[in-house]
Amino acid sequence: MGKLVVLCSRGDRSLEWDPDDAESTEVARQVFDALKAEGCRAYVEDPETKEGAFTPSFDPGAEEIVVVRRLVGG
Amino acid sequence: MTRARKKSSSFVDSLEVNDGLHLDGIFHGLVFLPESGSPAAEKRAERLFRAHLTAEQRRRWDTTRACVIQGKSGAMYTLREAGKSYNLQQGDERWCVYPLGSYQWPVADVYLAQLLALRHEDDFVQGVARRRHESHFR
User: Fold this and answer.
1) How far is CA B116 from CA A23, B38, B123, in A?
2) What is the least distance, in Å, from the CA of B28 to any CA of chain A?
3) If you average pLDDT over every residue of chain B, what do you get?
4) What's the whole-number mean pLDDT along residues B7-27?
5) A63: helix, coil or strand?
6) Is B67 in contact with B60 (CB distance < 8 Å)?
7) Distance from CA of B39 to the nearest CA of A (A)
8) CB contact (8 A) between residue A73 and residue B97
9) What is the structure's pLDDT at B14?
10) B45 contacts on A by Cβ (under 8 Å)
11) Residues of chain A found within 8 Å of residue B7, distances taken between Cβ atoms
12) What percent of chain B has pLDDT over 90?
């Protein structure tokens, strides 16, 4: 299972998908694309090593993708 | 229209982008969780933030409420538990950068956003952060 974690005003929300299930994967992909279109940034990390990257596109094989609203300077 | 498209459209329609991302509405698979500001939301945010710290960062966070982050560029940053603005330090500068509309967020979610951005794309953060010399805060 993959998990899309979205940080938002009411705390983090999560949406899971099963990479073997076309529909749940497609829903997660579309949500990811919608958030990206709003200017959100997304990151994938290895849970153990913390190695990872900013990810510009949905990765159905990711264990967890954290989506953050656009960063601004104060 | 496919079922997947309907579900994602329902989600997109529920976005209120002027005041943070409100993920309301009926959306299959989306887990609805307590409001920010509630002890449960703050606790969950802290747990998620800690899960993304390395063991050394967690140890330092628990003892000093600060941690050092190495950016992709190799630069080092300090993230402090000190509100949501100007809580980042690089050299003798304090930086202010946060997710748009995050004034309502649990503070640990803001720290997680800062942690991930600095760790994986600090060059991007450098481009948007507002900076003040350390002496400004003395």
Assistant:
1) 29, 24, 12
2) 9
3) 82
4) 50
5) coil
6) yes
7) 11
8) yes
9) 52
10) 11-12
11) 27, 30
12) 55
DSSP string, chain B: --HHHHHHHHHHHT--TBTB----S--TTEEP-PPTTSHHHHHHHHHHHHHTS-HHHHHHHHHHSEEEEE-TTS-EEEEESS-SSS-EEETTEEEEEEETTGGGS-HHHHHHHHHHHHHHHHHHHHHH-EEEEGGGG-
* Residuewise pLDDT in 10s, chain A (74 residues): 999 999 877 678 889 999 999 999 999 999 999 999 888 999 999 888 888 899 999 999 999 999 998 889 97
pLDDT at B12: 56
Nearest chain A residue (CA) to B105: A9
- Inter-chain touch B3–A23, beta carbons under 8 Å: yes
Residues recorded for chain B: 138
CA B2 – CA B49 distance, rounded (Å): 36
User: What are B66-78's pLDDT values in tens digits?
Assistant: 999 999 999 999 9
- Chain B residues with CB inside 8 Å of A70's CB? 99-100
- Is B105 in contact with A39 (Cβ distance < 8 A)? no
A39/chain B closest Cα distance in angstroms: 10
Do A54 and B121 count as a contact with CB atoms less than 8 A apart?
yes
**Distance (Å) from the C-alpha of residue A15 to the closest C-alpha of chain B?**
5
pLDDT in tens, B82-112: 888 899 999 999 999 999 888 788 899 999 9
Torsion of CA A43, B59, B34, B19, to 10 degrees: -50
